[in-house]
Amino acid sequence: MNKKLRSFNSPTFLAYALIAPAAIYILLIVAWPVLETIRLSFTNSSLAGEDYVGFENYEKMLSSKKFNKIVTRTFVWMFFSVSLKLIIGLIGAILLNANLRGRSMFRVLIMPPWVVPIAIGMLGWLWLYNGYFGIIAGVGMHTGILDGPFGFLAYKQSAFISTIVADVWVGTPMVTVFFLAAMQGVPRDLYEAAYCDGASRWDRFFKITLPQITPVIITMSILSAIWTFNSFEIIWILTEGGPRGATTTLIIDTYKQALGNYKFGRGAARAVVVMILLTLFAGFYLALLARINKKISHG
Amino acid sequence: MDRYTFLEKFFIYSAIFIFMTFILLPFVEMFYASLRPLDHLFRSPYQFYSDDLSFWAYSEMWNTVPMLGRYIFNSFFLASSVAILTLLFVIPAAYSYARFNFPFKNSSLYILLAINMFSGAVLLIPLYKVLRTFGLLNSYQAMIVPGVAFLIPTSIWLLKSYFEKIPVDLEEAAFVDGASRVQILRHIIAPLSTPGLVVVGIYAFIGAYAQQFLFAITFNQKKEYMPIPSGLYEFIGYQSVKWNEMMAASLVGIAPVLILFIFLQKYIVEGLTAGAVKN
């Protein structure tokens, strides 16, 4: 390789100059607000002004029973939502991976919940969950499972479950699509060899497909944990965190404190907790990704 | 390979039917509700059959919410602005990541992935204060500025993988022959990467269209800048909710994104899954 070419391939200054606009933009709109949130969490900032208050926001937050309940609730909500997304997504991917007529059409038809703005999809769910006129209560009443109108979002437990179902609805298509892509990436000759050896369809699934797509399953479980943890609009539109706080997760609580009551300081302290948890998830995800990449490059 | 027996086929199709029902029921119900008169909707218990179906709600909705057309325009305007701005920031960065080696290249790429995990909802407080300081609250910019930031990371990853597919030999040959970098960009990279740019642009457009709600309800109170997802709430009146018109307007609001996506789904899905699956 001649000298001119080498300079073509590693012009450090040019490389940084090209990245600079995007990097500066992200620093301004994402990184700086992160630092500002940390600073605000040590103040009693509101629309009226702000004073330094030390750890007061954190002390109040961590000693409140309500906050501890919110944290537990967030993880329970997340656990059910993520597990359901993975299970339904895996089943969906298996079904749509079957070599049957119409599968390419079905693969397109599963996308809408993923593509449509969540805020609009949730209006559909609001209507479905309507206790008097919605189809779910309607089917319940016609079949006799319900003996009268039932507002799914009006009671603590049913609201909790209903928001999970709606969240699963939003998240499943993407999980399905990623699992499908992984399944299609499994080398065909593995299946052909197994088929010649007389392995049944179940054997081929559990001994070839599943081990081959495990890295993607793990990646998707962390990614959907992060997205589910961040899920705001679904709960906000369906219940605003109610009834009586039954669907208030950390994100909802942060939003309510900060932009419902304009208590920026208290909200910021909650946002910091959210960020710490997110950073843990992200670190876990990146470490895993690095390990998977290493495995691949080492064969 | 072995074929499916009739029973297996029957079982798989039934399972697909149940799966698709879960996925599509809200849309089917939205469409059905949009066709029914309001007093039919308000019958309890639910009636599966209406004899009075019409597209009346699709014409009446413009009278109930006079600014509806404006909201739809706003959504398009916001999403297109965000997509174009995102591309402007992302093209040079993605090119740099695809072609050059430099210190901190991999770590900064991973940082981009990590940033992806911070949703707008966590950073609303400082963003609110920043936008207030610059006097940007209650304007288009209030929704555009944060929107771009959260789409940059994924877009860089997507476009980087497109650029990597263009053989570097072409550029090297041109460079050795004395072409300037600008010429290379214009005559080699730009034409070859057009499909990639379109896909990333559409991805940013759909993403921007989807994320409008949160920024709109937090940073904007002015009706004239409101996008459709928050504008739809005007169908909720003091007395009752005009569900049929709200559903009609919702479907009109999502139709353009859905159509765009259906035409380009193959490319978008390929691009998005490539990173997570093959990496």
Structure description:
The complex is a heterodimer of chains A (299) and B (279). By secondary structure, chain A is mainly alpha-helical. Helices cover 76% and strands 0% of the residues of chain A. Chain A has 14 helices and no strands. Chain A starts with a helix and ends with a helix. The mean pLDDT of chain A is 87. Chain B has helices spanning 6-35, 38-41, 56-64, 68-99, 105-115, 124-133, 140-165, 168-176, 181-219, 228-231, 243-278. Chain B has a single domain (67-278), classed as MetI-like fold, CATH 1.10.3720.10. With 279 residues, chain B is mostly helical.
Layout: helices, strands, pairs:
The complex is a heterodimer of chains A (299) and B (279).
Chain A: H1 3-9, H2 12-40, H3 56-63, H4 65-97, H5 103-109, H6 112-115, H7 118-128, H8 135-143, H9 156-184, H10 188-196, H11 201-230, H12 233-238, H13 250-260, H14 264-297
Chain B: H1 6-35, H2 38-41, H3 56-64, H4 68-99, H5 105-115, H6 124-133, H7 140-165, H8 168-176, H9 181-219, H10 228-231, H11 243-278
Which residue ranges of chain A are poorly predicted, with pLDDT under 50 across at least 5 consecutive positions? none
Main β-sheet description of chain A: none
For the record, the CATH architecture of chain B stands as Orthogonal Bundle
Distance between the termini of chain A: 29 Å
The gross shape of chain A turns out to be: globular
Named at the architecture level, the CATH assignment of chain A is Orthogonal Bundle
Multimer state: heterodimer
- How many structural domains in the coordinates of chain B? 1
> How many H/I helical runs of chain B?
11
